[in-house]
Amino acid sequence: MPRDKTATHLKVLEAAREEFMEYGYENASMRRIGQRCGMTAAGLYRHCRDKAGLFGELVSPSIDKINEWIEGHISRGIHSMETDALDLWKDSEIDMMRNLVYPNMEEYRLLLTKAKGSPYENFLHDLTIRHQEQMLSFLPMLREKGYAPREIDPKELHLLLSAYTTAIFEPVVHGYSKEEAYRCLETLEMFFLPGWKQLLGY
């Protein structure tokens, strides 16, 4: 369905955001969303297919931004490795959090804390699996370039990536202030990045 940018549709989206933030996706009510924006059920359904469609329209821009960053991250990693300029410190998920997620914490809090029962409730798990697959495909490329990454079982890697992904998103989940989040990020950077560097053999 094309994104409707009319004032009425934006009003519907704002009402839906308030409803989802208050009740979560699972307990949110289309009737209450209609009431919040002064619209009948019939009028509301002219703006969306269903509750899932509304929630998806609200969270998909945030997901798209992460997907775009990841695609760029992969391209940058391959390029830096091919040019012998690989440097984990200059381009990691820590940078994604610092420059993309933490400046927009409220957007991501909807996705991370209110999605139970929706198609997006396993977002962090799915992100971890995606990262795991990418890293496993990256290891042979590192070896070809003369690096010496440690042999690691996919189950071990999954444990590490689950801990890493959960930790960097925790300030969003728990509603930390931006100052608190950035301070935590410095600690996470000191803790995780040396380990990743050792694991990847450079």
Short note summarizing the structure:
This protein has 202 residues and is mostly helical. It is built from nine helices and no strands. The longest helix is centred in the first third of the chain and has 32 residues, at 51-82.
What do you see in this structure?
The chain has 202 residues and is mainly alpha-helical. The protein folds into two domains: 1-49, Arc Repressor Mutant, subunit A (Orthogonal Bundle); 59-200. The chain has helices at residues 7-27, 30-36, 41-44, 51-82, 93-101, 105-113, 123-144, 154-173, 178-200. Helix 1 (7-27) packs antiparallel against helix 2 (30-36) and helix 8 runs antiparallel to helix 9 (178-200). The longest helix is centred in the N-terminal third of the chain and has 32 residues, at 51-82. The protein starts with 6 loop residues before the first helix and ends with a helix.
Report the span from N to C terminus. 47 Å
Whole-angstrom Rg: 20 Å
Q: Shape, please?
A: elongated
Record field, number of beta strands: 0
Low-confidence sequence ranges? none
Helix content: over 70%
Helix and strand string, N-terminal first?
HHHHHHHHH
Number of domains: 2
Number of helices: 9
Structural class: mainly alpha
Strand count, sense and closure of the main sheet?
Answer: none
Write down the overall mean pLDDT. 90
Strand content: under 5%
